[in-house]
From TrEMBL:
Residues 24-283 form the Phosphatidylglycerol lysyltransferase C-terminal domain. This is Uncharacterized conserved protein. SUPFAM superfamilies: Acyl-CoA N-acyltransferases (Nat). InterPro entries: Acyl_CoA_acyltransferase (IPR016181), LPG_synthase_C (IPR024320), UCP018688 (IPR016732). It comes from the Bacteria. Transmembrane segments: none annotated.
Length: 288
């Protein structure tokens, strides 16, 4: 089996450099995503010049993110992975499925994974919230502003401790293993916020730091919304904080990626409520 190792911060430039060279802008393969989720998803990485592949024990003993890199290296990597039984390739974009069908005809059963689709939004629309499509979001923001004294400030060294307190308070109310996995990812994101190029906003309600929304760049023009937590659920506050983060970003970011919904109804409803403009469709390939 392909050798892997722990994902460390020193790999960031190499991993994201390979992604950019290959024009791979999905959140699934971003270094920050892999780094923060390595504990919750059982991730380890094979990294070489021009290619990386990520093993994902959460999806199976021989489950891997589709390799990212130069075509000939990806082809060689898939050939090596096929030497082990029950190979499962995850997070394939449409161009990745085309690669498998071209290079390995008849070797894989490919299925669409709706729960892995990544939601995309025009940042300008998320800032302006103009038109009838966004009337519900505007009402949510007006409601929370009417009922409470709300404000926000950019995530920085002075309020990172507040962000951690908010995240931990949210997780104390979350039951089940999904919450525990998400907690580890949230902790890594906030503790290493500077090294991971994280940007975010901390929102206060009636003078108390109460909510955090944060993410990281996927490309020079695309930004990932990765983290959204509140001390306790407050109607309209998540809409307010997501809008604040969209407003705070540089105009260089024209697209927002809100990641997948994992098949969880609440997440799906929230992401659809934001009025997506499109999706990065994701697929899975199982060796026959």
């Amino acid at each position: 089996m392909m050798d892997t190792q722990q994902i460390t911060l020193k790999m960031k430039a190499s991993v994201d450099g390979i992604r950019m060279k290959c024009h791979h802008t999905a959140a699934s393969h971003a270094f920050a995503t892999l780094y923060i989720w390595q504990e919750g998803m059982g991730l380890s990485i094979h990294l070489e010049d021009g290619m990386f592949a990520v093993r994902c024990r959460w999806r199976g003993e021989n489950a891997w993110f589709f390799p990212c890199g130069e075509d000939h290296l990806v082809r060689r990597g898939v050939e090596e992975l096929l030497l082990e039984k029950d190979l499962r390739l995850c997070y394939l974009r449409e161009e990745d499925t085309a690669f498998l069908e071209r290079e390995f005809p008849g070797r894989f059963q490919i299925t669409e994974k709706e729960s892995d689709h990544e939601y995309l939004y025009h940042r300008a629309e998320q800032v302006s919230l103009y038109g009838s499509r966004f009337s519900g979001l505007r009402k949510d923001i007006r409601r929370v502003e009417k009922l409470h004294r709300v404000s926000w400030e950019p995530l920085c060294s002075k309020n990172i401790s507040d962000a951690l307190i908010i995240s931990r308070a949210w997780h104390r109310q979350t039951d089940g293993p999904e919450g525990l996995e998400d907690m580890a990812a949230s902790e890594r994101l906030l503790l290493e916020w500077d090294a991971l190029d994280v940007q975010g906003v901390v929102a206060s309600v009636d003078g108390e730091p109460y909510a955090i929304v944060a993410g990281y760049p996927l490309s020079p023009s695309s930004f990932d919304f990765s983290l959204s937590k509140e001390k306790s659920r407050l109607s309209g506050l998540s809409v307010y904080t997501r809008h604040a983060l969209a407003c705070s970003l540089s105009d260089a970011y024209t697209q927002i990626n809100a990641e997948e919904d994992l098949g969880i109804e609440g997440l799906r409803n929230m992401k659809r409520l934001m009025r997506p403009d499109g999706q990065i469709k994701q697929y899975e390939g199982r060796a026959k």
